[in-house]
Design brief:
By secondary structure, the protein is α/β, with parallel strands linked by helices. Helices cover 31% and strands 25% of the residues. The strands form 2 sheets. Strands 6, 7, 8, 9, 10, 11, 12 and 13 form an 8-stranded parallel β-sheet that branches. Strands 1-3-4-5-2 form a 5-stranded mixed β-sheet. Strand 7, helix 3 and strand 8 form a beta-alpha-beta unit. The structure holds S-adenosyl-L-homocysteine. The site of S-adenosyl-L-homocysteine has 16 residues, from helix 7.
Length: 252
């Protein structure tokens, strides 16, 4: 059936598929098949919405099911791939549950790129990027994004700052540095600087003095305050991203 305002129904499963989509048959196995067959109890004829982070979103219909695999018939395109706001979230990896939360919220709130930044007080040795990616995908499926946030390889703060100055690597990108020790009010400051941006959030223990000085020495860095209370890093990230979206992003 073709896409209409009433079709597909709101309850239609929505899945990310990591290969280019086009009209025609599509075989699925592994976790996506498990989700459709075991969790959603998909039957032949059921609609499924698919997006691939490349071509946009498509309406498909379950054609055939087996025990652990199924074939879909990809039909009409529902939407082109969206334009993603040009905001990076540069954030120190947090303990498991909080990093999961942060990835989910970053995706829902519209972040274009998530950059795990390792700082002196980062407590997590090696951020689990597979796990972060899985949370980004799940959030994108749920919130209706047709483009995934990019997930950058973890980078040390010193390298991040060094690269920032190099042409072609974010040189005109503002770095809004959330500083719990004080800065300009975030909303007004962001509103005055539209264009490519990033927000930088420290780990649970904050940045140390040397790091704070190195960040402030970067010409593109702008220290911003998120109010008089000390926020947890995950709260600070969600607050700063929301503020940017409202000030100059796609919430306007
Ligand atoms: N150093 C603090 C905790 C850091 S909070 C302490 O233990 O006392 C973690 C991160 O959240 C900070 O590095 C900062 O980037 C951000 N943050 C928290 N509260 C903030 C605020 N009121 N304004 C700006 N950034 C804040």
């Amino acid at each position: 059936m073709a896409a209409t305002p009433a079709w597909p129904p709101r309850s239609t499963p929505r899945l990310f598929v990591d290969r280019p989509l086009a009209p025609g048959p599509l075989a699925l196995d592994g976790p996506p098949a498990h989700y459709l067959l075991q969790v959603m109890r998909a039957k032949p004829g059921d609609p499924v919405r698919l997006f691939d982070d490349r071509t946009g979103e498509w309406l498909a219909t379950v054609a055939e099911t087996a025990k652990r695999a199924l074939t879909l018939d990809v039909g009409a395109q529902l939407a082109p791939r969206e334009a993603v706001p040009d905001l990076w979230l540069c954030a120190a990896p947090l303990k498991k549950g909080r990093s999961d939360w942060l990835a989910e919220k970053a995706c829902e709130l519209g972040v274009g790129r998530l950059v795990p930044v390792v700082t002196r007080r980062t407590v997590v040795d090696q951020p689990n990027t597979d796990r972060l990616r899985a949370h980004l995908i799940e959030a994108a499926e749920q919130c209706g994004r047709t483009a995934l946030p990019q997930l950058a390889a973890p980078v040390k703060l010193t390298a991040l700052l060094r690269d920032w100055a190099v042409a072609g690597n974010g040189s005109d990108r503002a770095l809004f540095f959330a500083d719990e020790q004080g800065g300009a009010p975030a909303f007004e400051t962001m509103r005055a600087r539209p264009g490519p941006a990033a927000v930088l959030i420290g780990p649970e223990g904050g940045f140390d003095d040397a790091e704070r000085a190195a960040i402030r020495a970067l010409p593109q860095a702008v220290g911003v305050s998120l109010g008089p209370r000390i926020l947890r890093a995950d709260t600070a990230a969600a607050a700063a991203v929301s503020m940017w979206m409202a000030a100059v992003g796609d919430w306007r």
